[in-house]
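Changelog note: in this version the structure field was regenerated for every chain. One regenerated record is shown below for reference.
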Amino acid sequence: MVLSLRLAEDIDAPPSGAPDGCVCAAVRMLARQVTRPLERMLAGHGLTLTELQLMVKLHSAPGSAIELAHRLRLDPAPVGRSLKRMRERGLAVRASHRRFAPWSLTDEARLHLEVLDPLWNEMNAVTREALGGDVSSRIVRHVDAAPGPRPREHRGWVDD
C-alpha cells in the first residue's frame, strides 16, 4: 500500500499526493524555529515563554488562572503551575487564597517587562519580516474562527 502521508520537507521522501506534505508537522517545525530564539533569550532572564505570555496578559489586566488560560488558549493546569512559580519568584501575586482569585503582576515583573520589551521587539520584527507582514494576525484570526477546545476526557480539578 502506498501512503500519501509524508512530513513536510521530508528529505528523499517518495512522491505523494499531498503537495506540501503534512501541514501539522510543518506548522510544528515553524513553531519550534520561531520560538527557539525567544526561549533562549528568556532563559537568560529566568523566564519561560508561558511566563512571558502570562506577564504580558497580566500587565494589561489582572485575571484568574482560568481566565488567563482562556485568553492565551492554553490548558489551565500548566497556567496554574506557571503562576505559582511566578509567585515564588516574586513576579505575580494573587488577591486572596480563594481558588478563582485574580492574579496580578508585581513591580519586579513590570521591570522585567520593561527590560524584555526592546529585545522582544527586535526578535519579533526579524520574525515578522521573515514570515511576511501580518502573519500573526492571520494566525490568530484562524485560531479564533476554529471551534473551541474539546472537553477534557478526565475532568480533574485544577488548583490555580
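Spot check on this record: The chain has one domain: 23-145. Residues 23-145 form a domain with the Arc Repressor Mutant, subunit A fold (CATH 1.10.10.10).
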